[in-house]
Amino acid sequence: MSGFLDGKTIVIMGVANKRSIAWGCTQAILDQGAKVILSYQNDRIKKSLERFVPDDLDLIECDVSDDANVSKAFEEIGQKYGKINGVIHAIAFADKDTLTSGLVNTTKEGYDLAQNISAYSLISVARYAQPVLNNPASILTLTYFGSTRAIPNYNMMGVAKAALEANVRYLASDLGSDGIRVNAISAGAVKTLAVTGIKHHSDLLKESESRTVDQKSVTTNEIGNVAAFLMSDLSTGMTGDVVYVDKGVHLI
Ligand code: NAD
Predict the structure, then answer these.
(1) Is 65 a pocket residue for ligand 1 (Cβ < 6 Å)?
(2) Taking the domains of the chain in order of start, what are their residue ranges?
(3) Ligand 1 within 6 A of 84 CB?
(4) Per-residue pLDDT tens listing for the chain (252 residues)
(5) 8 A C-beta contact, residue 197 and residue 213
(6) What is the pTM of this model?
(7) ipTM of the complex in this document
């Protein structure tokens, strides 16, 4: 298909299943003509992907909990595909106790794990992707409103998202002279695997839907379309930004 991403190659990290925000991004980016490479966390996720991902999408393993994996994945990407035009980082994790116990009860281990996977990994991805990124290129991550407001039950993930958004600004400043932009989409709540880890997540989803401007939650397709724009040269004027794609939830 032909579109505003014709000729671009984009790496998308974080598709777990068809509900994943990263899958909404994948479809929108394919619709605009790009080649897509998906990275997956482990064999369990790979098996899930093999059930619905078309054969012509390449899959590369990358568990971001270890820098060596991130380095190896981008080396492999460089060797197989040459220079790429963008990376989408749609990855977050906190263990169940940390997510459900209230921030005041967060252990050091729980804090470190959530920060490592959900915020530090963007730095690691940017560092190891840098040698294979073209000029211009785009890095995008996914964040949530709980970074700036104390959203009930979002707990430690809100702290990790605040760090992630600061990472976006500093990385944008570090990498700007190489023509690499770094932005985040602050997505509205959508029912994905990650959300089900949040205590009373159905209340969060309902509350969020009721606060949209038209009482209809944002879809992963709508998030994906903005991701496609941010991957494209139409957005070369934007870097270090957090763009809300939440149907107005943040307004109220
Ligand atoms: P999801 O569960 O579909 O995706 C999360 C992904 O993170 C999975 O693919 C998982 O394999 C990956 N992951 C976790 N640990 C990893 C590791 N060590 N190495 C590599 N990958 C790892 O859920 P989602 O909601 O699509 O989440 C994608 C991003 O969007 C996350 O950053 C999430 O915080 C963010 N986000 C989600 C919502 C929402 O309401 N769903 C709202 C705003 C932002």
Answers:
(1) yes
(2) 9-246
(3) no
(4) 579 999 999 999 999 999 999 999 999 999 999 999 999 999 999 999 999 999 989 999 999 999 999 999 999 999 999 999 999 999 999 999 999 999 999 999 999 999 999 999 999 999 999 999 999 999 999 999 999 999 999 999 999 999 999 999 999 999 999 999 999 999 999 999 999 988 899 999 999 999 999 999 999 999 999 999 999 999 999 999 999 999 999 998
(5) no
(6) 0.98
(7) 0.99
Does 193 contact ligand 1 (Cβ within 6 A)?
A: yes
Give, using CA atoms, the residue closest to atom 34 of ligand 1. 92
Could you list the active site residues? 144, 154
Q: Which CATH architecture has domain 9-246?
A: 3-Layer(aba) Sandwich (3.40)
Assigned token pair, 47: 């098996």
Residue 7 CB coordination number (10 Å): 9
Q: Report CA(142)–ligand 1 centroid distance (Å).
A: 8
For every residue of 34-69, DSSP letters joined together read: -EEEEEESSHHHHHHHHHHS-TTSEEEE--TTSHHH
